[in-house]
């Protein structure tokens, strides 16, 4: 019998069209269910009040295989899922999973596979395809999905054009980007036009690592270290560059969410603050690093333990933490999302009802322009 990944790949090929990798589909091989079966929508309550939940960290795969089929990057062209075109029955499976787990709205971004190797013409076609398909999915269920687009950041002027079009014509609420672009930090001066446009448009930038792909020898061996250690490390370095190189000072209106709890930065802000205060190796910046995290920076809730979440909130404030699951990686392979979803927030000691409501949905609703 095929394993789950083989099952998904075979199903995607057979269906030939947008294939969204939902947990129902991932579990079909092991747990068949009737296609017409509909789950009751879970209502999340905090302090006796209904809460609208928003998952800021949710992925889909779109049909760009024909555009990149001749290019191999790090041994993989399309990331972990060779998914293709949108099929309504697959969106239904995704919605069933959301209903079962108490997720009212997903902010949908591409599976991270940034294609920053592409020349200008190809990059434009890849990003246009991605953004149009994500927008179409979200438009089909506007009460359940909001779109987070892709950008060709290796061409900053093109990225600016894409942002303008995608926000004003496709309804994008933000964009997902990598922590670096072809080994250049996001704080490099060449990216200032991108940050200026993000500030002007008032949209959320979601920094999501793509992984070291085994490129660093210390990450080899058991433990999936390029993901377990490498992913949060990438985000930590990216956010630190943006703080210490003055990018956030130059663009004080920019709003950024770091995936996976913002990496390690939020848990070790005291060391960054100390450097800013006492080290001759730190050029002056306008504020302590911790202040940027309480003003411009946000992070998702994927830290896996109640104590980890309590500590995260203590460091950055409940208004700067957003519910995230890493769907569909909360259930599928590799299993590195948080399958508890809303239950990772509910009832955590030290979080008030207002804190829980903020993290579960109010914060993301404000950042993504989701009306009540």
Mean pLDDT: 84
**Helicity level:** 40-55%
Provide the low-confidence segments as ranges: 1-35, 73-89
- Beta content: 5-15%
Q: Would you kindly provide a written description of the structure presented here, covering whatever features stand out?
A:
This protein has 15 helices and 12 strands. The N and C termini lie far apart (47 Å). The chain has helices at residues 4-15, 23-27, 65-68, 88-101, 120-140, 156-170, 192-201, 225-228, 230-244, 247-250, 259-262, 269-278, 289-293, 306-316, 353-368; strands spanning 45-46, 49-50, 54-60, 105-110, 145-149, 174-177, 180-181, 184-185, 204-207, 255-258, 297-300, 321-322. The strands form 3 sheets. An 8-stranded parallel β-sheet has the order 3-4-5-6-9-10-11-12, sandwiched between helices. A two-stranded antiparallel ribbon has the order 1-2. A two-stranded antiparallel sheet has the order 7-8. The protein is an alpha/beta fold and 372 residues long. It has a single domain (4-368), classed as Metal-dependent hydrolases (TIM Barrel), CATH 3.20.20. Helices cover 40% and strands 12% of the residues. Residues 1-35 and 73-89 have low confidence and may be disordered.
Can you give keywords for this protein?
372 residues; alpha/beta; TIM Barrel; 8-stranded parallel beta sheet; two-stranded antiparallel sheet; 12 strands; disordered N terminus
């Amino acid at each position: 019998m095929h394993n789950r990944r083989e099952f998904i790949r075979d199903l995607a090929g057979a269906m030939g069209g947008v294939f969204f990798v939902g947990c129902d589909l991932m579990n079909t091989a092991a747990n068949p269910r009737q296609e017409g079966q509909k789950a009751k929508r879970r209502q999340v309550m905090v302090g006796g009040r209904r809460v609208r939940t928003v998952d800021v960290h949710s992925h889909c795969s779109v049909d760009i295989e024909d555009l990149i089929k001749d290019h191999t990057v790090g041994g993989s062209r399309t990331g972990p899922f060779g998914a293709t075109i949108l099929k309504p029955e697959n969106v239904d499976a995704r919605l069933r999973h959301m209903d079962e787990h108490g997720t009212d709205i997903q902010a949908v971004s591409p599976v991270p596979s940034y294609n920053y190797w592409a020349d200008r013409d190809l990059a434009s076609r890849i990003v246009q395809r991605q953004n149009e398909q994500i927008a179409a999915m979200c438009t089909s269920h506007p009460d359940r999905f909001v779109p987070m687009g892709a950008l060709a950041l290796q061409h900053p002027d093109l990225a600016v054009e894409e942002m303008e079009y995608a926000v004003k014509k496709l309804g994008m609420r933000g964009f997902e980007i990598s922590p670096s672009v072809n080994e250049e930090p996001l704080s490099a001066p060449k990216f200032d036009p991108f940050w200026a446009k993000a500030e002007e448009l008032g949209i959320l930038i979601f920094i999501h690592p793509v992984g070291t792909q085994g490129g660093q020898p210390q990450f080899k061996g058991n433990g999936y270290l390029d993901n377990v250690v490498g992913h949060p490390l990438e985000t930590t370095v990216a956010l630190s560059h943006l703080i210490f190189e003055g990018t956030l000072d130059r663009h004080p209106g920019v709003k950024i969410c770091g995936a996976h709890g913002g990496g390690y930065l939020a848990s070790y802000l005291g060391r960054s603050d100390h450097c800013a205060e006492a080290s001759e190796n730190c050029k002056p910046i306008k504020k302590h690093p911790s202040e940027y995290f309480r003003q411009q920076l946000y992070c998702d809730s994927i830290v896996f333990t109640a104590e980890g979440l309590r500590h995260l909130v203590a460091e950055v404030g409940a208004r700067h933490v957003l519910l995230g699951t890493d769907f569909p990686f909360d259930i599928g392979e590799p299993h590195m999302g948080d399958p508890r979803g809303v239950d990772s927030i509910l009832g955590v000691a030290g979080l008030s009802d207002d804190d829980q409501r903020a993290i579960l949905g109010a914060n993301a609703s404000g950042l993504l322009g989701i009306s009540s």
